[in-house]
Amino acid sequence: MLYDTCNITQVMARGQSGRIVIEINPEVKRRLYAALALSGSTLKDWFVREAEQFSDESWQPSLYKTPASSASDDNVAETASAETDSH
User: Relative to the CA of 86, which of 17, 21, 62, 78 has its CA 20 to 30 Å away?
Assistant: First the structure.
């Protein structure tokens, strides 16, 4: 029984407050805030937008993206579109 109690500390707490607390690599945090500043967004606005999209797509997957697609796929499509427009 003591073994099970010790494992509880490895589970992230989930309260009802609406707050989310995470720990990330300090370098990732620095880059994220720099990117957000360049885009004129706040961490909260960005997170809420991404979280809503992610949770919506988990219930109703997009017809245009596969679950395995990534931001790099979007960048490739944007680059290809820009190259086509410039010709």
Answer: 62
Tokens 């009802």 — which residue?
A: 16
pTM: predicted TM-score of the whole model, two decimal places: 0.53
Q: How many CB atoms lie within 10 A of CB 47?
A: 15
Residue at 79 is within a domain: no
**pLDDT tens, residue by residue, 22-41:** 999 999 999 999 999 999 99
Q: What is the pLDDT of residues 42-84, one digit of tens each?
A: 999 999 999 999 998 887 766 776 655 545 455 444 444 444 4
Domain range for 57 is 20-64
As for how many domains the chain has, the answer is 1
Which DSSP state fits 8? G
The reply to whether 38 falls in a domain is yes
Does residue 42 form part of some domain? Answer: yes
